[in-house]
Amino acid sequence: MAKDKPAKAKGVPNKHLHSRSTFLYQAATYLTLRAGAPDPNQALDSAKSSGAPQSRHGLALQLVSDLQNVSRKGQVRLSSELKRTICKTCNTVLMPGRTATQTIENESKGGKKSWADVLVMKCMRCGSKKRFPVGAKRQKKKSERQPPQAQTSLSEKSAEDPTSTVSPMQTSTDQASTPG
Ligand SMILES: [Zn+2]
């Protein structure tokens, strides 16, 4: 009678793609960190790994490019937080103080408008900039916004209309009959 339906018990779709993209991002972040930091092993065998930081950075770039390919081919959307930390031009993982600089710009008159604050992330490798508004409140999605007032008044009218337009003749006769 009761059939087992394994298809119903579905978890995260494309879980393997998510785990793969997460791994790629973490590995790229780690390698970027290591590439920037002074290598303790480098002092021991400096001759061997003289070009290590550069190759690490190259590998990190490759991983980020793989991450984007996984996202593109598997149609897995990367989170906006993740995308904000990746340079679109050169695929560097942006880390403030290491591979990127963070500054706040305010182009309003005299910087008076606090909601005009813009966070500018500049990639140290290629110099490209990302700009995020931070002072302004984010506008709601279209579906979450309240419908315009004209529409609500229209719907109210249409709700009232049936009662008033049921029989205009009758109301006029009623009015006529009441005084008399
Ligand atoms: Zn860059």
Automatic annotation (TrEMBL):
The keyword Protein transport does not apply. The keyword Membrane does not apply. Residues 130-143 have a biased composition (Basic residues). Belongs to the eukaryotic/archaeal RNase P protein component 4 family. GO terms for cellular component: nucleolar ribonuclease P complex. It holds the Pfam family Rpr2. Residues 146-180 have a biased composition (Polar residues). Signal peptide: none annotated. It comes from Paraphaeosphaeria minitans. GO terms for molecular function: metal ion binding. Keywords: Metal-binding, tRNA processing, Zinc. This is RNAse P Rpr2/Rpp21/SNM1 subunit domain-containing protein. Gene3D superfamilies: 6.20.50.20. It comes from the Eukaryota. InterPro entries: Rpr2/Snm1/Rpp21. GO terms for biological process: tRNA processing. Residues 130-180 are annotated as: Disordered.
